[in-house]
């Protein structure tokens, strides 16, 4: 074998070892050179792939864009294509997604195609998961807006991500005003006795950190107008995509406290009457 044939054979073997699909095609729509990856990926023989116009293997929905892409390669000054995607039919009748890079010179199209079927299917699954999540979120939002309790959610940094209608009504804040703000600094910076409430002691913030459910019978949130709202609440960890947050369900206990105060006063009154009667009893 002469030395001049060695580079040519080495080049052919390197091309056939490539996992990407390499080749050339004519402007009239036929493959002229294809490496072994084509047969391995699509299941057709190389001879079959080169015997028919390559558009006969393209998915019908991708045909128009494929023809337009090929036409662009014939236009001087635009003889390069990158990141073009379409589907090719396999010998079993299924389709594989390819991403193409191509250039043209001397009436020949040179190209490399990457099989991105797995990535495309994962994108589809991710889109489906996102759509399902949005549907479930819409359902949960609709459900939470139909109940009397206030509900808000915060991420692992304590920033507000959601308020239902009842929470907005009771606190006087709109969701647009509070979303993204640190909930503790806005509505929970004060204790029931009026003293400062350090953020590191906040049960709501610690729920996201420790992942534990907390129930508080008496506390206070600060309304938008600066007045105090007596509340009872539960704070539960919220876990999604590996990120912890918290969701808080709270009740306005103003009426409850007023009732308890009235009961205490009545009890004090009865106790006072009892003491007076005891003082007036000569026995």
Low-confidence stretches: 1-11
SSE order: HEEHHHEEEHEEHHHHEEEH
Shape descriptor reads rod-shaped
Distance between the termini: 135 Å
CATH topology (level 3) name of the largest domain: Beta-Lactamase
Report the major sheet. Answer: 5 strands, antiparallel
Q: Please give the radius of gyration in angstroms.
A: 36 Å
Question: How many domains comprise the coordinates?
Answer: 2
The CATH H-level superfamily of the largest domain is PAS domain
Number of helices: 10
CATH class of the largest domain: Alpha Beta
The level of helicity is 40-55%
Side by side, the strands of the main sheet go: 2-1-5-4-3
Global structural class: alpha+beta
Strand percentage: 25-35%
Protein traits:
283 residues, alpha+beta, Beta-Lactamase, five-stranded antiparallel sheet, 10 helices, 41% helix, rod-shaped, disordered N terminus
Summarize the structure.
This protein is 41% helix and 28% strand. It has 283 residues and is α+β, with helices and mostly antiparallel strands.
List the helices and strands and how they pair.
Layout: H1 5-17, E1 21-26, E2 31-34, H2 36-42, H3 46-51, H4 63-73, E3 80-89, E4 95-105, E5 108-115, H5 117-144, E6 150-154, E7 160-163, H6 165-171, H7 175-178, H8 183-187, H9 203-210, E8 214-222, E9 228-240, E10 243-252, H10 254-280
Antiparallel strand pairs: 1-2, 1-5, 3-4, 4-5, 6-7, 6-10, 8-9, 9-10
């Amino acid at each position: 074998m002469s030395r001049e044939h060695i580079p040519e054979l080495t080049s052919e073997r390197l091309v056939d070892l490539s996992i990407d699909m390499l080749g050339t095609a004519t402007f009239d729509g036929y493959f002229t050179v294809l490496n072994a990856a084509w047969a391995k990926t699509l299941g057709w023989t190389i001879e079959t792939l080169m015997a028919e116009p390559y558009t006969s293997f393209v998915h019908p929905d991708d045909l128009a864009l494929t023809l337009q892409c090929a036409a662009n390669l014939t236009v001087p000054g635009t003889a390069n294509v990158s990141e073009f995607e379409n589907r090719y039919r396999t010998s079993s009748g299924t389709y594989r997604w390819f991403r193409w890079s191509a250039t043209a010179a001397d009436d020949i199209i040179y190209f490399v195609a990457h099989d991105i079927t797995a990535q495309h299917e994962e994108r589809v699954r991710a889109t489906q998961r996102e759509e399902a999540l949005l549907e479930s979120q819409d359902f949960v939002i609709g459900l939470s807006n139909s109940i009397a309790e206030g509900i808000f959610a915060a991420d692992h940094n304590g920033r507000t991500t959601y308020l239902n209608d009842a929470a907005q009504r009771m606190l006087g804040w709109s969701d647009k005003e509070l979303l993204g703000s640190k909930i503790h600094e806005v509505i929970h910076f004060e204790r029931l006795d009026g003293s400062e409430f350090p953020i590191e002691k906040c049960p709501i913030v610690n729920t996201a950190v420790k992942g534990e459910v907390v129930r508080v019978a008496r506390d206070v949130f600060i309304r938008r107008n600066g007045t105090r709202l007596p509340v009872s609440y539960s704070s539960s960890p919220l876990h999604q995509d590996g990120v912890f947050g918290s969701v808080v369900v709270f009740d306005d206990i103003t009426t409850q406290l007023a009732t308890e105060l009235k009961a205490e006063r009545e009890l004090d009154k009865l106790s006072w009457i009892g003491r007076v009667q005891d003082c007036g009893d000569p026995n």
